[in-house]
Amino acid sequence: MSLAPIALTCGEPAGIGLELAEKAYAALGTSVPFFLIADPTHLTQQQPYVEIAHPSEAIAALENGLPVLPHKFPAPNTAGKADPANARAVVEVIERAVGLVQSGEASAVCTNPINKKALKDGAGFEFPGHTEFLAHLGGVERVVMMLASEQLRVVPTTIHIALKDVPKQLTAELLQDTIRITAEGLRADFGISNPRIAVAGLNPHAGEGGAMGTEEQDMISGVLRALQQENGSFKLNGPLPADTMFHARARAGYDAAVCMYHDQALIPIKTLDFDRGVNVTLGLPFVRTSPDHGTAFDIAGRGIAEPTSLIEALKLAHHMASRRAAARTETTG
Predict the structure, then answer these.
(1) 294, part of any domain
(2) Which residues belong to the annotated binding site for substrate?
(3) Which amino acid positions bind substrate, per UniProt (predicted)?
(4) Least buried of 95, 170, 265, 299, by fewest C-beta within 10 Å?
(5) Domain range for residue 176?
């Protein structure tokens, strides 16, 4: 059975997402089956496009242009300037994409960037971001954000909070759940049967025996010991000093690094592979990837946006969806 195409959302139409979708089609052609959910009048039309009535038409349409499943927006689009009138439609496109993957009409969701302020102002959007909204639509309480590239996979345990709040938010339960979800994602979506996970400390030098902080002794080490004792299907190493975790020799020793806060995880991957990093949400009942950048209003409409991250996000979504489909086939016999 052939894999259903990927549903690519338009994201904030005033950003670079639509331009990137057209560039991704130009680069990928028919090699990765996907379709865009968008208002066709918002497209830059730098590439040919084909309006489709159903996702099942996408694969054939790719021979002639970018397949677009039309979704009407109430206002025209001005590059670089979000219109609050379009906010509700941006949310509807995300909901529509998730509905299609839940029904099996799409194999995965790939999301173009949104602007949270525009959604809050125009649609009363109450979620901190894409990830939390997708968890709500998927009916799960906790998900994990992974940034992945060929060189490195990183997972921040705490994400979009002030650095001063990290020690308060960093609980044993949160760290346990993050590691478990990461291990399962590496198995299910990346085909790593016995994942090796490196875990960073919170403090410089991983606390240096308590001289620079005690979170490693008081909580992190105990969590790692307990998890390793209860589950031998993944290997944990840590807590490790974050400043020595990301050179080439160190990276060869693990499949993913679990970090304690946002920048501890994202600085290394963005330094090593800025353009190819992909945002992956682990723990959802469906595959979701996204390019690792924002709406970039400052360059929207100028034709200079770099599409590599979206291209990699579509390729990874296809790979992950293929793995899940193969696992379902093996399970059903």
Answers:
(1) yes
(2) 130-131, 270, 279, 288
(3) 130-131, 270, 279, 288
(4) 95
(5) 151-272
